[in-house]
Amino acid sequence: MDREKMPLLIGGVIIALVALSGLAVTYPALNTMGVLEKEGEDLRREVAQIEAQTHSTQDLAAELVVSQARFNREFKSVPPTPDVAGLIRKLGTFGEDDDESYHQTLTTGQVQEEDGAQALPVILEARGNFPDAFGLIKRVEDLDRLARVRRVTITRDPTRAEIIRATIQLDAFFATAEESVATASQQP
After folding, report:
1. What is the DSSP letter of 77?
2. Residue 114 CB contacts under 8 Å (≥ 6 apart), including other chains
3. Alpha-carbon torsion 43, 46, 48, 50, what sign?
């Protein structure tokens, strides 16, 4: 070998050794970087799933709030007793006290067993102007107890055009005797 080629050969060997040592140092780092990139992608996917679940949970929470508001608005209790006096009090009077054209009667029938509850048939008959009749119908709708309206009949009074006759037939529900006893025994 020539002396002239020797420095080139040594330089080539040094460059090869440096390249190999650099590769020996960087290859594990490159391998680790690939693993870290895969883990990072897995974590991004998990975060996206958690965000989707969070949005879904928030949507469900909003639906729950709407459902609870609807429940509170529409829930009607089934009292343990017929409570006719309370029913009459809640339906109130029909018309103005100083209006001699109004008249209201409330008639109850025999208690009937119906679909696991007891129903008290009630007939409300009233005579007065339309706003008074509408107010009575609204009070029936706004009862805080479960009541089923069976029939509403509104007719004009044949003698006075501004006066109407309204008849509302409804069933006011209350618990069966067994449910009443069970409920009373559970209360402290």
Report:
1. B
2. 171, 173
3. negative
CA distance 145 to 147: 6
133 closest CA partner among 108, 157, 159: 157
Non-local (6+) Cβ contacts of 1 within 8 A are: 9
pTM: 0.57
126 in helix, strand or coil? strand
**Geometric angle at alpha carbon 65, from 68 and 46, rounded to 5°:** 135
Taking the C-alpha atoms of residue 141 and residue 73, their distance in angstroms, rounded to an integer, is: 12
Measured CA to CA, the distance from residue 101 to residue 55 in angstroms comes to 60
Which class does domain 84-182 fall in? alpha beta
Distance between CA 68 and CA 75 in Å, rounded? 10
Q: 129, 139 in Cβ contact below 8 A?
A: no
Note the pLDDT tens digit of each residue in 48-84: 999 999 999 999 999 999 999 998 888 888 888 888 8
